[in-house]
Design brief:
Layout: E1 5-6, E2 12-13, H1 16-29, E3 38-40, E4 46-48, H2 51-66, E5 78-80, H3 81-88, H4 92-100, E6 106-109, E7 112-116, H5 117-145
Helix pairs in contact: 1-2, 3-4
Length: about 150
């Protein structure tokens, strides 16, 4: 029986059978969001996962179903400007501009800027929310114009 393979450094290779099983599960759920997950230990203990963990595992399941590469990793509390840029999906100079404009607060480590992960994540969430609002506004304009 095939299975996922755990390699060094926490990398998990997902075989085609596991990908197909994930795809079947996502297809069975249809457009419904996964709202609840429970697992049972070998000794019979049932554990109900909190909603935030359900959301995380749902995202992983969706990604596995799609195939291709995926990375789940921990991040330090203080990020370099390059790591913050990657997390925000912008260039490093854009991060420096966000710092100058006061949108991000940096702490200095010698002559280098470091940014708090929580603050970068909050800016990312706000940018994502604003992007969704802009798309919704454009779609509403299109609906009104027809």
């Amino acid at each position: 029986m095939a299975s996922s393979t755990l390699l060094t450094r926490g990398t998990v290779l997902v075989d085609e059978e596991t990908q197909a099983l994930a795809s079947d599960a996502i297809r069975a759920a249809g457009d419904d969001r996964i709202a609840k997950l429970t697992f049972t230990t070998e000794t019979g203990v049932e554990v109900q996962l909190p909603p935030r963990v359900v959301e995380l595992l749902s995202n992983v399941l969706n990604r596995v179903a799609l195939g291709g590469a995926m990375s789940v990793q921990t991040m330090p509390d203080l990020l370099t400007t390059s790591a913050a840029a990657e997390l925000l999906g912008v260039s490093r100079p854009t991060v420096m501009k966000l710092i100058r404009d006061g949108a991000l607060t940096s702490v200095m480590a010698g002559s280098h800027h470091r940014l708090r992960l929580r603050e970068v994540a909050a800016v990312r969430a706000e940018r994502e929310r604003a992007r969704h609002e802009a798309v919704d506004s454009l779609l509403a304009l299109g609906d009104n114009g027809e």
